[in-house]
Please model this.
Amino acid sequence: MKLFDVYPLYDVTPVSAKGIVVTDDKGQEYLDFYGGHAVISIGHSHPHYVKRLEDQLHKIGFYSNAVQNPLQVELSTKLGTLSNCNNYNLFLCSSGAEANENALKLASFETGKSRVLAFNNGFHGRTSAAVAATDNQKINAPINKQQKVTFLAFNDLASFTTEIEKGDVCAVILEAIQGVGGLDEPSTDFYQSVAKLCKANNVKLIADEVQCGFGRSGKFFGFQHHNIQPDIVSIAKGMGNGFPVGGVLIHESIEAKYGMLGTTFGGNHLACAASMAVLEVIEKDNLIENAATLGEYFKTCATEIPEVKKVKGRGLMLGLEFDFEVAALRKKLIHTQHMFTGGAMNKNLLRILPALNITKQDIDTFFNALKEELK
Ligand SMILES: Cc1ncc(COP(=O)(O)O)c(C=O)c1O
Model:
């Protein structure tokens, strides 16, 4: 059997990784400023993470959600405390799309309505309702297009108000900082007005924190830069540092009913151990503070590069915008400078999504390499 060929691959075969260094099958080392697409939060093969997973594997790796799993309780308690979201309850699943799928389903259950408001350039995953709320027709099949979704522009409050007041909307879903789209953000005023209008119209506000959550933006959650309280928060990516784990934080005003949501793999023992390890390292090493400080340092360094037209993002969710497409530059950074970076829907944007424990020296190394390639 061959692989179903859906990914255009770079010709690099990583076989090991430590911190932000990834080594390929020929022994070549690469610096990882991409984090496997914002997934690596505490660094590859962090010793505490490896030990936590190894110890757990020797005890029990999986049992179904039909029995007690104290690790889930431990995880929800720790997550509530570190994120300052103690007035939410946690449902665990295994990916970002699944988190958003559950979030949208909950909003529909709770309000009895079905239309979704989403935003231009937003990305929420590739499954049923999540992909329908993703502003990319190319990845929506006819079966997905049956969903009722209206796309709007960030900061256009008049159009938003008209749509939400029609009375058929169950959910508004948005990323506090757009990832795949290219690091655009709503203004605080707009975000706060959206939250207010959701309350007034019995609509659930879903913050998709799959990419900008878990400390990446310099606060635990991206929406926390705007002083709002979403009804539902979806999480994944950095939550497991590579272990497939996701979840939804559900405001305590939404009541759980048996059978409402469910999953085979979500919240298994290994996934909980991985996520606990991530939270423990984030807390012990002050990684959210580090993301905020180094994000500012990165922005300062970027101002010294004339080819950079705009620096976007917050914390260690960053982008450099040029007046040319960056695909060739990314290739050169990989093959000549041995550095992984990311792209976006905005083809002129180079995305930087490293582990949250990188250093100033790593950032200096990145900019020296970038300057070389821009010569
Ligand atoms: C903001 C956002 N939401 C959802 C997803 C989907 O996550 P997953 O690929 O784990 O299904 C992504 C993935 O890039 C994302 O960036």
Notes: The longest helix spans residues 96-111. The chain is about 35% helix and 15% strand.
